[in-house]
From TrEMBL:
<dbReference type="InterPro" id="IPR002524">
    <property type="entry name" value="Cation_efflux"/>
</dbReference>
<keyword id="KW-1133">Transmembrane helix</keyword>
<feature type="transmembrane region" description="Helical">
    <location>
        <begin position="187"/>
        <end position="204"/>
    </location>
</feature>
<feature type="transmembrane region" description="Helical">
    <location>
        <begin position="112"/>
        <end position="134"/>
    </location>
</feature>
<dbReference type="InterPro" id="IPR058533">
    <property type="entry name" value="Cation_efflux_TM"/>
</dbReference>
<dbReference type="GO" id="GO:0006882">
    <property type="term" value="P:intracellular zinc ion homeostasis"/>
</dbReference>
<comment type="similarity">
    <text>Belongs to the cation diffusion facilitator (CDF) transporter (TC 2.A.4) family.</text>
</comment>
<dbReference type="GO" id="GO:0005886">
    <property type="term" value="C:plasma membrane"/>
</dbReference>
<keyword id="KW-0813">Transport</keyword>
<dbReference type="Pfam" id="PF16916">
    <property type="entry name" value="ZT_dimer"/>
</dbReference>
<feature type="transmembrane region" description="Helical">
    <location>
        <begin position="14"/>
        <end position="34"/>
    </location>
</feature>
<feature type="transmembrane region" description="Helical">
    <location>
        <begin position="155"/>
        <end position="175"/>
    </location>
</feature>
<dbReference type="GO" id="GO:0015093">
    <property type="term" value="F:ferrous iron transmembrane transporter activity"/>
</dbReference>
<feature type="transmembrane region" description="Helical">
    <location>
        <begin position="82"/>
        <end position="100"/>
    </location>
</feature>
<protein>
    <submittedName>
        <fullName>Uncharacterized protein</fullName>
    </submittedName>
</protein>
<dbReference type="InterPro" id="IPR036837">
    <property type="entry name" value="Cation_efflux_CTD_sf"/>
</dbReference>
<feature type="domain" description="Cation efflux protein cytoplasmic">
    <location>
        <begin position="227"/>
        <end position="289"/>
    </location>
</feature>
Length: 297
């Protein structure tokens, strides 16, 4: 995690993605108007879903940045997880609709016409989509968040979907007078459905885990334990470590037993030193160290 990143980094990333989707929906809408392709129409539906999803994510990130109040003293970070679940449901609904339309076109195939503008758009947006995916993945690694991880998966699915659609339409156009090529349009839509279902499942599974307050990833826990080992002389016994994530924030509770002969002032100094060392390796984490004499339930 990079401590030099400003709090608005995720918001800027989503802002650029939102602008891209607005242009994407506009251009793809024009391509659909000029064509009878199911793949193009399906992609327009998917792009509209992506636009609504990213808009929701953008508004959610802005809301989560607000300071906690008396009603939500821990903030509203879990709103990110709820929005991620909603995004997954939107993708699932789109995938089911595309599957139904593809089955209809496979039963009654027809030549796809007017697809050249759509092929050009797919080629351009495949390049842009993968570029945004790599940028969003980097932000997600530096500022861990269910929302940004969901967006990275969304953009990977989107770019892969565009590459599949563009390739299928290009082959169908080159061999448009061959009957077998008429099946490529609905088949490409079904391949795109696989990417959409994969993204929907990944979003839902990661979001539900954090909603249930699952323990954070093992690598971060090992880094916390490493700091506890380095300060082994500052306490008598480690009883328990509890971790959870709420949106972009990580909460860590450490239950330590100290020498009973120590004054509270000395215990507090040791707690402060340990909190500082853990915060240095996990910037922005909320670290609570609780003195205790037995393991909590």
């Amino acid at each position: 995690m990079n401590p030099n990143l400003t709090p608005g980094t995720r918001e800027r990333s989503l802002h650029y993605a939102l602008l891209f989707c607005l242009v994407d929906v506009t251009l793809m809408g024009g391509a659909v108007y000029l064509s009878n392709s199911l793949a193009l129409f399906s992609d327009l539906l998917k792009e509209a879903t992506d636009l609504l999803s990213i808009l929701a994510a953008f508004l959610t990130v802005r809301a989560v940045r607000r300071s906690p109040d008396h009603r939500f003293s821990y903030g509203i970070g879990k709103l990110e997880n709820l929005v991620s679940l909603t995004i997954g449901l939107c993708l699932l609904a789109s995938a089911l609709w595309i599957t139904w339309r593809s089955a209809h076109h496979l039963a009654s195939p027809q030549m796809a016409q007017g697809t050249i503008p759509g092929i050009c758009i797919f080629a351009l947006y495949t390049f842009i989509g993968y570029r945004i995916y790599f940028q969003t993945s980097q932000v997600a690694r530096e500022q861990p968040s269910a929302m940004m991880e969901s967006q990275a998966r969304l953009w990977f699915s989107k770019a892969s979907f565009d590459a599949t659609m563009g390739s299928a339409l290009l082959v169908a156009h080159l061999f448009r007078h061959e009957t077998w090529s008429w099946y490529l349009d609905p088949l490409a839509s079904l391949i795109g459905v696989v990417f959409m279902l994969h993204a929907a499942w990944a979003m839902a599974s990661s979001s539900v885990k954090d909603l249930l307050d699952a323990t954070i990833e093992e690598t971060t826990q090992l880094r916390i334990l490493g700091q506890l080992v380095q300060h082994l002389d500052d306490y008598d016994r480690l009883h328990k470590v509890r971790t959870r994530r709420s949106g972009p924030r990580i909460y860590v509770e450490i239950f330590l037993q100290f020498d009973p002969s120590l004054l509270m002032g000395e215990v507090q100094k040791r707690i402060d030193k340990l909190q500082q060392s853990i915060t240095e390796i996990i910037p922005g984490a909320d670290i609570s160290i609780r003195p205790c004499t037995q393991s909590p339930p």
